[in-house]
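Chapter summary example.
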Amino acid sequence: MPMGVSMGHRQKTQEEEDILPRDSEKRKLSRKDYGSTSNDSCSDCPTCHGTGRIPRGQEGQLVAVIPCSDQRLKPQRTKLYVCVSVVLCLFICALILFFLFPRTVSLLPVALKSSYVFFLPTTIQMNLTNVLNITNENFLAVQACDLDLQVLIWDTIVGKVKIANVTTITPRSQKVYTYEIPITIADQGLNNYCKSTSFRIHTLFLHLQMTMKVFYLGHAEQLSMDTFQYVDCGNNSTTPHIA
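The structure predicted for these 243 residues follows.
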């Protein structure tokens, strides 16, 4: 056979045929390693085990990969919902603060309702009935207690009264409370002044010092008030009269 250059396909040598199968095996292994969806790789899938389905009971243990272009990652009107929620929370907080914010509880003396005067040989006994106005500006009920009151003539204490449970004031309302004050005048000069018939008017100037505790919104508050009254001590009577 003459020697010449062959223009056809070159026959593979035995060494090349031994190398090619090894390359094909590497390509198959690489496809399996990178999770190919071919039938050969599906048989080695650790999740579905070649069935193409996720076993029951493993839904909460697996993680799904969602593309960034998926519409589920782009919910509509998110900013609107967030703004509405924030405004609603602020509105509810403002309402709570408005109704639960502590407001003023005030005391106001109305007038002297009546007075009883009793002449004794050495002293003068008087029972005064006073009217007190308690105003509650809160949106909750207020409990008034521990009323402590003392009456002074100049610097001398002539009467004291203590009341443990006073009253309950409903929200946003006023309540009139009536209380009595016993007074004993033992000073000889005041006795002569009140019992004297040479004076037509026997007026005493009384100084009332009052403290009272109120409970509301889980805390206590002490109120204090000073007021003055004019009382006629020259009428020895057991019937009430307006001073």
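To summarize the output: Confidence is low (pLDDT under 50) at residues 1-9, 26-42, 238-243.
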